[in-house]
Specification:
The complex is a heterotrimer of chains A (192), B (390) and C (201).
Chain A (H helix, E strand, L loop, with lengths): L5 H22 L1 E5 L6 H25 L6 H8 L5 E2 L15 E11 L22 E11 L4 E8 L9 H11 L16
Antiparallel strand pairs in A: 2-5, 3-4, 4-5
Chain B lengths: L1 H16 L20 H20 L3 E2 L2 H15 L1 H4 L3 E5 L6 E3 L4 E5 H6 L3 H16 L2 H4 L7 H11 L22 H17 L6 H19 L19 H12 L10 H20 L4 H12 L5 H14 L2 H17 L4 H13 L3 H14 L6 H9 L3
Parallel strand pairs in B: 2-4
Antiparallel strand pairs in B: 1-2, 3-4
Helix pairs in contact in B: 3-6, 6-9, 6-10, 9-11, 10-11, 10-13, 12-14, 13-14, 14-15, 14-16, 15-16, 16-17, 17-18
Chain C lengths: L3 E7 L14 E3 L5 E2 L5 E3 L5 E3 L8 E5 L7 E8 L28 H12 L4 E12 L2 E11 L5 E11 L2 E10 L3 H14 L2 E2 L5
Antiparallel strand pairs in C: 2-5, 3-4, 4-12, 5-6, 6-7, 7-11, 8-9, 9-10, 10-11
The chains are: A alpha+beta (192), B mainly alpha (390), C mainly beta (201).
């Protein structure tokens, strides 16, 4: 069984946060962390998080899986368009008034215990995954807060970077932010 | 009928086999809030915290303060203030009999559980049982991942409605309440009973609700023309006590009725009154005819209220066989006799009659619905039915 | 350099399984299309995508951005005593069945109960039900909203009719944020173009 490991995750979050802060220099941007909210603002936040999941899922399902593409969007692709949006209502997201873009990041890492090979059977809503050793997933998405347009999504179910170490976190962040719009190319430690 | 014969046969068998119990029913001193030790436990706590964040934001959450205060008061009265102080309760609108408790002190109570309890003592026994798993740290010893509130619903789909018969014994019927092994279940039962015994509640409530749950499982299977699988497994192969065995030993442990102990049936009914119609509607719409009939009959006892009769009318009308429509009309009429102010009862009566081709009588009932609720969401459609020229 | 400000938010995502390997197909604008081998046909005025994965034998789903974002589903010619869509677990979660004796007023409840019984939808509200002409028949039009397991709040609109004892029902569902409004007109145009031919399937 995958063991959720808070120490690892806390460390990973810290490392990734540090790596992002470092990477901001190459992005030419100021990064702010979204405020914690309660009440109605929290409901709006939850609604947009759920919507983002649905959009990211659609992009992964109907764009990244090439054999499953939608013909109308294939046409868009040929014209160089990548059109998925959250709609202009994104300005209601808590913290949106202080930012131009919203960066959604999800990174999930599981490390199997030594000596154990485990079959993981997930609930109906998720994908069933059979993994022998570990699981390293990452998604990052950038949303334009003026229009709600999803500018860019990166999803990788076999990411590199040992996020329990600072160097590994840098590598993971570099992968996540690959092709990030406006980014200057950077030599990340331990590049792929 | 075969179903009933089996019940008799098995209960005799188990009555002979059940050992005499002399368990210690003293509540141990409370150790205080438990902080996670080691990487495994911290991982579980972290996951539980994520789950709690989703539950807090979930569309299924019932936020009503009065109901939340009431359920909390039942828990506190059961396990004591020092224990319940650190529990956060989330009431979820899921029409299955279940309650779950996470290692970080988060408890969920599902609306299907609230519907099926008939007294405060019964609710107390289920919540106490769940809290006992938490106090004994069973989750930590044998955890499984539950990640978000969406998974709560996904688990519900996996477990099915109350009357599901999944092949995995551990998930039999009650979902989260049966997720542990046999020894852990017994431990939780015993500690749960200890809480009840120390409280002012009548401890016999613990066994009664399990007996009813067995009945519902049977009824549901019968309604689907399936064989109830609960008795297929011999007790020694099961990893947890069957409901029948559990009911038996719970009853023997609880001992004779002690005077002065409360069921608080009235207080419970009063607290549930604003929610009964909603929870009944959620149950009726699950397409489980046998199980729902059973739940309604049990709730009614010897007194069918207007709400229960209405629900029964809906149940029959939705199944919609020719005979069902006639019965449904009867139930609606009986409901109206007790309470002629509920518009939906006339709506149900009218639709049942129209569908059964008693057109004039049906139209009359629908007209009454429109008089009582002219701005109903479906008023335009109902009006069209009334105006139809046949 | 123009300084742009980014906001970071962490979010957990659900990953959906990829659909079958057969490609999704293009529904071209301005050509009549026959739905699910039934006598229902429509003529959309814009392009749509038809998903290769179908909810049931007599059903078909169209989308623009993916079915989680806009979902136009046809239940075409559902016969009496049949469910609307495929049962995932027939034994433990059987779906309610359409009956030829049903009234048009019963159709919204049939859809609702199918979602509650078969798709673990626990929050569902019917907002409006009215008579309407649909595909040249006396039909029902209704609006509804619900929340499914992915916690996305969705709105729905549907049109249905019972013809020769069979149900023809077309639903459009999308997240309440942005997506429902974005394509509702395209849906209504499809509905306006619908026709149900004579003769059984």
């Amino acid at each position: 069984m995958f063991e959720p490991n808070a120490d690892w995750t806390a460390q990973a979050r810290e490392n990734i946060g540090a790596a992002l802060t470092q990477a901001q220099a190459t992005l030419g941007n100021r990064v702010i962390v979204q405020p914690d909210v309660v009440g109605e603002a929290a409901q709006i936040q939850a609604d947009y998080m759920a919507l983002f999941s649905a959009i990211a899922g659609s992009v992964i399902n109907y764009q990244f899986f090439v054999g499953n593409r939608l013909p109308t969007k294939v046409r868009d692709n040929r014209a160089g368009a990548f059109e998925w949006t959250m709609g202009p209502g994104v300005s209601a997201i808590p913290g949106a008034s202080d930012a131009d873009y919203a960066l959604f990041i999800y990174t999930e890492d599981h490390y199997g215990s030594t000596g154990r090979k485990v079959l993981q059977i997930l609930a109906a809503v998720s994908v069933g995954v059979a993994v022998q050793t570990g699981l390293h997933k990452g998604y990052a998405g950038l949303v334009d807060l003026r229009t709600g347009n999803l500018l860019w999504l990166n999803a990788d179910m076999a990411m590199g970077g040992e996020v329990r170490t600072p160097e590994g976190a840098q590598r993971r962040v570099a992968q996540l932010l690959e092709d990030f719009p406006g980014r200057r190319p950077v030599q990340a430690a331990g590049a792929r | 009928m075969n179903g009933r014969l089996s019940v008799t046969a098995v209960s005799l068998l188990l009555a002979v086999a059940a050992p005499a119990q002399t368990e210690n029913l003293a509540v141990p001193p409370y150790q205080g809030v438990y902080e996670p030790q080691g990487v495994d436990e911290r991982g579980l706590w972290m996951e539980a915290d994520e789950t709690e964040r989703s539950a807090r934001d979930s569309g299924l959450l019932i936020r009503d303060q009065t109901l939340n205060d009431y359920v909390r008061s039942v828990l506190c009265r059961t396990v004591g203030d020092d224990r319940c102080r650190n529990v956060r309760i989330y009431i979820l609108r899921i029409p299955s009999f279940n309650a779950t408790m996470f290692p970080n002190g988060m408890m969920t109570v599902w609306s299907g559980l609230l519907l099926r309890c008939r007294t405060e003592a019964e609710l107390a026994s289920v919540l106490g049982h769940e809290f006992a798993h938490f106090e004994r740290r069973h989750t930590v010893n044998r955890f499984r991942r539950t990640r978000t509130a969406t998974d709560i619903l996904a688990w519900s789909a996996l477990i099915g409605a109350v009357t599901a018969q999944p092949s995995n014994t551990d998930l039999l019927v009650i979902g989260g309440l049966f997720r542990f092994n046999r020894d852990q279940e017994r431990e939780a039962d015993v500690l749960g009973l200890a809480y009840l015994t120390r409280s002012t509640y009548r401890p016999q409530g613990a066994s009664e609700i399990w007996v009813r749950m067995m009945g519902e499982v049977d009824a549901s299977a019968l309604g689907r023309a399936q064989r109830s699988r609960r008795y297929d497994r011999a007790p020694f192969f099961a990893t947890h006590p069957t409901e029948l065995e559990r009911a038996t030993y719970l009853r023997s442990l609880a001992g004779p009725d002690i005077a002065g102990r409360a069921d608080n049936a009235e207080a419970y009914a009063a607290a549930m009154r604003p929610w009964t119609r909603i929870f009944l509607e959620d149950q009726v719409r699950l397409n489980d005819f046998g199980g729902t009939e059973f739940v309604l009959a049990q709730s009614a006892g010897n007194r069918w209220t207007a709400d229960l009769l209405f629900a029964r009318g809906e149940l029959y009308r939705m199944r919609g066989n020719p005979r069902d429509l006639v019965n449904a009309a009867d139930f609606y009429r009986q409901s109206i006799t007790q309470d002629d102010g509920r518009p939906e009862a006339f709506r149900g009566l009218g639709l049942a009659l129209m569908r059964a081709r008693s057109t004039e009588e049906g139209k009359a009932a629908l007209r009454r619905y429109l008089e009582l609720k002219p701005d109903a969401p479906d008023a335009p459609m109902i009006r069209a039915l009334v105006d139809q020229a046949f | 350099m123009h300084i742009r400000t980014y906001m970071i938010t962490a979010v957990a995502l659900l990953l959906m399984a990829p659909a079958a390997a057969i490609a999704n197909s293009l529904i071209a604008a301005n050509a009549p299309v026959r739905i699910a081998n039934s006598t229902l046909s429509v003529t959309p005025s814009q392009d749509w995508n038809k998903l290769s994965a179908r909810p049931g034998r007599s059903a078909e789903t169209w989308t623009l951005d993916g079915d989680a974002l806009n979902n136009l589903t046809y239940y075409a010619g559902i016969q009496s005593d049949r469910p609307l869509f495929r049962e995932v677990d027939r034994r433990n979660r059987p779906l309610p069945r359409f009956s030829a004796t049903m009234l048009l007023a019963d159709i919204p409840t049939l859809l609702e109960n199918s979602y509650r019984a078969g798709r673990s939808v626990a929050v569902y509200a019917i907002e409006q039900v009215e008579p309407v002409q649909f595909a040249g028949q006396s039909g029902v039009h209704f609006r509804y909203s619900f929340t499914a397991g992915d916690e996305v709040r969705r709105r729905g609109e549907a049109y249905g009719a019972i013809v020769s004892g069979c149900l023809y029902l077309v639903t459009y569902e999308a997240p309440a944020i942005h997506y429902f409004d974005a394509s509702i007109e395209a849906f209504r145009q499809v509905i306006a173009s619908a026709a149900i031919g004579s003769g059984r399937r």
